[in-house]
Design brief:
mainly alpha, two-stranded antiparallel ribbon, 69 residues, 26% helix
Length: 69
C-alpha cells in the first residue's frame, strides 16, 4: 500500500539555516567557517586571510595584526 506524502510547508517547522559567513577583519573578505575555526583568535576575530595575505604566512600575519589592534 502506498501512502501519499503531504507537501512540506513553512508551518511544518522546517527552517533553512541562516548563512553566517565569517569575514576577515583586515580586508572584509568572506572566509569559510573551517578557516575561521583554525585562524580566528579567542574572540573570533580574523586578522588575515588568503585574500590579503600569502597562504604560507597567514598565521604569522594574523598574530602581527592582532598585536596592533
Amino acid at each position: 500500500m502506498v501512502f501519499p506524502v503531504p507537501p512540506l510547508s513553512i508551518d511544518a517547522g522546517i527552517r533553512s539555516p541562516v548563512n553566517t559567513m565569517s569575514e576577515c577583519n583586515h580586508c572584509g573578505a568572506h572566509v569559510s567557517e573551517r578557516f575561521a575555526r583554525v585562524f580566528a583568535d579567542e574572540h573570533g576575530d580574523i586578522y588575515a586571510c588568503p585574500s590579503c595575505s600569502a597562504n604560507a604566512g597567514i598565521a604569522e600575519v594574523a598574530r602581527q595584526r592582532a598585536r596592533r589592534v
